[in-house]
Design goal:
Elements lengths: L5 H14 L12 H9 L4 E5 H5 L6 H5 L23 E4 L2 E2 L17 E7 L14 E6 L7 E11 L3 E14 L2 E22 L3 E22 L5 E21 L3 E23 L2 E20 L5 E22 L2 E22 L2 E25 L3 E15 L3 E18 L2 E12 L3 H4 L3 E2 L11 E3 L7 E13 L5 E22 L4 E24 L7 E16 L5 E2 L7 E11 L4 E10 L2 E6 L2 E5 L2 E11 L4 E8 L5 E9 L5 E10 L3 E9 L1
Parallel strand pairs: 2-5, 20-23
Antiparallel strand pairs: 1-4, 2-3, 4-5, 6-7, 6-34, 7-8, 8-9, 8-33, 9-10, 10-11, 11-12, 12-13, 13-14, 14-15, 15-16, 16-17, 17-18, 18-21, 19-20, 21-22, 22-23, 23-24, 24-25, 24-26, 26-27, 27-30, 28-29, 29-32, 30-31, 31-34, 32-33
Length: 674
């Protein structure tokens, strides 16, 4: 069998992906392109198409990723990440998404901007070594050859009480050798939630939180192709965000206001040069900047105001050389990146400055990698690679670390419809600049177990892991899939957030610490199947993760599960289309299992499992217009957490029961394409 050079195959697949017209995901066979790409990929990945991303009314990429088991994403200040197998690195068009402590860049990305999302369950040399828990690559849409304008308006309510609205507009086209895409997103979303706390020492408290989140984002993508051998791409994005959250509690009249505003700027230029039919040279230059300013005010008899200002700037350059030689596809790369960050925290009492603390950090990172994709006949592909990274940090004290991160991935085609995959990868998790900062982010008068003062730890070291994965995949003739896999991860210097009661101040504090050596293992099942042989237009999908963990704390000597690790995660859904009426409807239910953390540092904590049910219905009015109705979280999810406090002798001294209630959302969307 004559083999097409792997480099040519890779290039053609990318070119074809740009021209794929995304159609509504009703039956699995309509999603053939992503299934086929997943089947042929030498590295295990799940691929979620653009239409799948928007059908459940998610407002941004952050909400989308929470539906994917195994993905853990930080929300920003004071919020918890999505549960999963630990940390997960997120890339946007292959670039690491760097956010601030208040804002996640994923909140700036509308689902309409996304071509697809790739979820790789184990790290590879081609990407950053900081890929503990896997890699998520968000591939943004590229301009198509023909001109097209898209406009989308979404309006709705949160809990039937407060309005929500967003607008998206995009223009793409081509003029000579230049292809272009411009889009803009504006959103104004509100929430009105309730919560309660029952503490055996202080009694019962009810809280009402009124929040408003406003975002404005503009994106530009230009692709200039002067010849068949050369291509240049410019990506630029600017996002503005503003939020305000007011919390009032009873019976004690505790009132706090948290306000923030910020700006996120992304820009980069990329060049691709085909040196020959089997050689490709790529280079990238990038610049990212994040600014945010926040105010946290406690309106008590003696008002206290805390202001925090953050600034981060990143410069980077990258070079990649790829070459196909016989049965080998070799890829090498070099990346240099500098990050500067400054954080200020000041506290005022009646406009009088009480304290001002500043921390600055400079980080220089250099990376070098080599990866080879080796084909053994038509049935087996082995992808070994090694990555070297050197990180130098200066934050008052200077530290330098370096590490090698080897990996190997195996794809063995048992039959034309069955794949067996295996992988081993060494990964790391470096402490973030916010975790290293020793500034105190105070919760002011709202201080309890769930609202502690946040304090960094300058002595944190990197977390290291060796991950193993084994997976079997079966692809149905109608483009469906069923897969089952297992994973095991051995972790050194696991970083955990430790909550303690400071006896000198009688305040709860949360500090990241290297807890000890741990392990995480589990089983994953995934099904996506058309049932058209029984009911025309019917399809089902589902995935579930069962996992367990263990960690030996080096300070206490206790062996226990890793903190806040859910033992079960699942998503299940059904889609049905009535083609004669151009009408689609479906439902999806996601469930997050609970956890039970044993007593340590005079505190134990447990959380009950919770789930959410979403419904949608979509109707195409004509070739240009479509409308969609979404009912999100119609089960009104409640998260219930129980915390127990103990004295030095291990005697129970108090219990705190927290319940956080969320409300359903109703969204109506109208979309037009010309």
């Amino acid at each position: 069998m004559n083999r097409i050079p792997l480099l040519l195959t890779f290039t053609l697949s990318l070119a074809c992906a740009q021209e794929i017209v995304q159609i509504e995901k009703i039956e699995v066979q309509e999603n053939a392109s992503t299934i086929e790409e997943r089947k042929e990929s030498s590295i295990a990945k799940r691929i979620i198409s653009g239409e799948e991303l928007s059908q459940y009314g998610d407002l941004n990429a952050l909400e989308i990723l929470k539906r994917t088991p195994g993905v853990s994403i930080a929300d920003g200040k004071g919020k918890k990440s999505a549960p999963g197998k630990g940390y997960t690195v997120v890339l946007i068009d292959g670039e690491e998404a760097s956010g601030s402590k208040r804002v996640n860049p994923l909140e700036q990305i509308s689902p309409d901007m996304i071509e697809r999302i790739e979820v790789m369950t184990n790290g590879s040399a081609e990407y950053t070594a900081e890929s503990m828990g896997g890699i998520v690559n968000i591939v943004l849409k590229k301009p198509k050859s023909e001109g097209q304008t898209i406009a989308k308006i979404t309006v709705g309510t949160y809990g039937g009480d407060v309005p929500m609205e967003s607008v998206f507009a995009q223009r793409e086209g081509k003029s000579g050798n230049l292809a272009y895409l411009f889009n803009i997103t504006a959103a104004d979303n509100r929430q009105l939630d309730t919560a309660s706390t029952l503490n055996t020492s202080t009694g019962e408290e009810s809280r009402k939180t009124d929040a408003r989140y406003q975002t404005l984002n503009a994106t530009t993508k230009l692709i200039y192709t002067p010849s068949s051998r050369d291509k240049y791409t410019y990506n630029g994005s600017i996002g503005l965000n503003k939020s305000k959250s007011e919390m009032n509690s009873m019976p004690d009249p505790l009132s706090t206001t948290d306000k923030s505003k910020g700006m996120m700027l992304w820009s980069g230029i990329k060049g691709e040069h085909h040196l020959s039919s089997t050689e490709l040279l790529e280079w990238k230059l990038k610049f990212h900047q994040n600014d945010d300013n926040g105010e946290f005010i406690s309106l008590q008899s003696s008002p206290i105001e805390q202001k925090d200002n953050g600034f981060m700037r990143i410069f980077g350059a990258e070079g990649i050389y790829s070459r196909a030689i016989g049965d080998h596809f070799i890829k090498t790369g070099l990346e240099l990146k500098r990050q500067n960050q400054r954080d200020d925290v000041s506290v005022y009492n009646s406009s009088n400055l009480l304290s001002l603390n500043t921390t600055q950090m400079r980080q220089d990172k250099g990376s070098l990698y080599m990866q080879d994709e080796i084909s053994f006949g038509d049935s087996t592909v082995v992808t070994p690679g090694i990555r070297y990274e050197n990180v130098s940090r200066d934050f008052g004290a200077t530290s330098t670390i370096d590490y090698f991160a080897p990996s190997v991935h195996l794809l063995h085609r048992l039959t034309s419809s069955d794949n067996l995959r295996a992988s081993i990868a060494k990964t790391v998790k470096l402490p973030t600049t916010n975790q290293l900062s020793t500034l105190t982010d105070s919760s002011l008068d709202r201080n309890d177990i769930l609202h502690p003062d946040l304090i960094g730890n300058a002595n944190l070291t990197e977390e290291k892991a060796l991950s193993y994965e084994l997976r079997y995949e079966h692809f149905f003739e109608n483009k469906g899939i069923v897969s089952i896999g297992g994973f095991y991860r051995n972790i050194d210097d696991k970083i955990e957030n430790v909550i303690k009661l400071d006896s000198s101040t009688s305040r709860y504090t949360q500090t990241p610490e290297n807890a000890g050596q741990g392990s995480l293992w589990g089983l994953e099942l995934e099904v996506k199947k058309s049932l058209s042989e029984y009911v025309e237009g019917l399809g089902v999908f589902g995935n579930a993760t069962v996992q367990d963990s263990s960690l030996k704390n080096t300070e206490t000597g206790m062996t226990r599960p890793i903190k806040q690790t859910s033992n079960f995660l699942s998503n299940i859904g059904v889609d049905h289309t009535l083609k004669a009426y151009k009408f689609t409807y479906g439902a999806a239910y996601r469930y997050v299992g609970g956890y039970d953390n044993q007593m340590e540092y005079q505190l134990s904590q447990s959380q009950k499992g919770y789930g959410a049910l979403d419904l949608y219905a979509s109707k195409r009015l004509d070739k240009n217009f479509k409308c969609q109705l979404n009912l999100k979280n119609i089960t009104s999810t409640m998260i219930e957490t129980t915390s127990n406090m103990y004295d030095d002798t291990g005697t129970l001294t108090g219990t705190q029961l927290d319940k956080i209630h969320s409300k359903p959302q109703i969204l109506l969307m109208v979309e037009g394409k010309w």
